[in-house]
Amino acid sequence: MLSPQFLVIEGLDGSGGTTQVARLADWLRSDRGVEVLCTNEPSNGPVGRFVRRSLNPASSEGRLGDGVLPYLFAADRRDHLDRVVLPALERPNSWVLSDRYYHSSLAYQSLSIGLPAVAQLNAPFRAPDLTVMIDLEPEVCLERIAQRGGVRERFEALDRLRTIRDAYEDVIEHCRTRGETIHRVSGDGDIEAVADRIRDVVSRWMEDRP
Ligand code: TMP
Predict the structure, then answer these.
(1) What are 20-60's pLDDT values in tens digits?
(2) Is 105 close to ligand 1, i.e. is its CB under 6 Å away?
(3) Is 171 helix (H, G, I), strand (E, B) or coil?
(4) Of 22, 181, 195, whose CA–CA distance to 99 is shortest?
């Protein structure tokens, strides 16, 4: 039986993370016989729902300053871990697969308060066992966001995405220095091509595990 593992998929808005979480979970269940709980941040808990509403520019909550968001994301993370992630990891053969985790804060919120401050805020949280970063050109991300329609959230503008992509590079370095396993995969091509790359990374990582 496989011991519980905590996996995270990260990437820019429009890079396909949500779709790929579902694809990876299907494969882990059917091919590897693992029980998988799919989850996401912002979470579906009370703080997460509030954060999501406040990211919507048309929100009736009123716009929160960028300096407030790092604390709200961290509060949601604490709640998400305690309520969803950590209890699931207590169960045998149960994996958790999260669409975004603290790497999103380290990238997006570093723009407002700097990486050291966000890193300090997120230091108490359990590190994932494996993080897969989907890397895609911001221009392509924006095209995909436009195709799916809907409301544009706060971070979905080209300059902003370019800056966040650079910030993700610093995050990868920061996390690797702390001993985390992070693999980058290209988000180019269709859903199946990206899903294949991710399965490849996860398979190899599983083989290397003691
Ligand atoms: P989503 O569109 O992937 O659901 O995420 C919502 C937005 O929230 C997305 O633009 C990324 C952003 N975000 C942060 O800025 N910091 C965080 O810690 C998380 C989890 C998400």
Answers:
(1) 999 999 999 999 999 999 999 999 999 999 999 988 877 77
(2) yes
(3) helix
(4) 22
Provide the 3-class DSSP secondary structure of residue 96. Answer: strand
Between the alpha carbon of residue 139 and those of residues 60, 146, 159, 171, the distances in Å are 30, 11, 10, 21
This prediction's pTM: 0.95
Tokens of 101: 């985790």
Nearest CA to ligand 1 atom 15: 108
| Domains in the chain: ranges and CATH | 5-208 (3.40.50.300)
65 alpha-carbon distance from chain centroid: 22
Nearest CA to ligand 1 atom 10: 155
CA 66 vs. chain centroid, Å, equals: 19
